[in-house]
Amino acid sequence: MPASSSPVAFVLHGGAGVLADRSYDAELTHMTQLAEAARDALQAGGSALDAVCAAVKAMETSGLYVAGKGASPNQAGRYELDASLMDGASRQAGAVAALEGFVSPIEAARAVMERTPHVLLAGSGAARFCTDQGLEPVIDAPGYYTPAAAPDSRAIATGTVGAVALDQQGHLAAATSTGGTLKKVWGRVGDTPIIGSGTWADERCAVSCTGQGEYFMRANAAADVSARVRYAGEALEAAVDGALGDVAQLGGEGGIIAVDATGAVCARFNSPGMKRAIVHADGRVEAGVR
Question: Is 160 one of the annotated active-site residues of the chain?
């Protein structure tokens, strides 16, 4: 790596909330592999945006998480998925909400960012756009889906995936994707596709959130992390703790992953665990659920 380049950094999450009596060995192995692949790609000069999109797409298609293939149906039996991404260097962003019928919502979100003047497309219009763009459709829905969520009695049961990265050029990026809360009302949209609430990236930091989205929306949690860094001069971990504390004060739970322009990384949660993997400064990968 050239001496003039930035240190690379990467963090991903597989969703907040874990069960004490369930094994997460498959998820830990998968997240570790994804983190290693992202580290290698970033160290080889790959972009932060490509790294987060690749990791999130792999999580969507794995069926191991409440996103993409692992999503659960809403109360109407439909699979409505949300995703967003943001490129910190340009502040370009793309998102889809309540999207039905496509394998990779994060690919759809990237297409919105790169091929339209818009940020967010929703519902049947988003699906029509994906068809026009030739994105891979789901074949034989609902048979394609293998819901990954365990039974959950909470009013807002959680499940999301996301990734944040810093590349050698000093650029930051974030991506987030979800199947939404379990047993959600038809048409419900949470924080994941809302830029500033569930996803944020700028020149200071990149952020991806997971948890009870209604509370993260009311706290504008992802952008709040950057605001705390910018205006209060807080270090990344303090900024994440402050934003997550605001969510908790409203009554919500979940987690936040973040990386800043110096390569500092953070993964914090106030839920019963959060599936995550972190690439440390020395290249070591650490994965955990609690």
Answer: yes
